[in-house]
Amino acid sequence: MSCCSEIFWSNLVMTCSGILLACIALLYKSKCQHIKCCGCDIERNIQAEEELDEMELEQKNNRA
Q: Could you tell me which of 2, 19, 22, 46 has the fewest CB atoms within 10 Å of its CB?
């Protein structure tokens, strides 16, 4: 295996990993209640997450 192909494969793996992590972050920030993707069916409790986010924001505001 040559050096160039090793660099290519490592860059490909890092790029795919970065894209996957970015998609996961977007799904978390989207606040969708029901997500169905690639055979995975995810039901989220949005109200509880929003309450936690509000409490964290209040704590940050109290510190400042």
A: 2
Of 50, 27, 57, 53, the closest CA to residue 40 belongs to 27
pTM greater than 0.70: no
The string of DSSP letters for the chain reads --HHHHHHHHHHHHHHHHHHHHHHHHHHHHT-SEEEETTEEEE--HHHHHHHHHHHHHHHHHH-
Computed on alpha carbons and rounded to an integer, the radius of gyration of the chain in Å comes to 19
Residue 11 has a pLDDT of: 93
Q: Which residues contact 41 (CB under 8 A, 6 or more apart)?
A: 34, 35
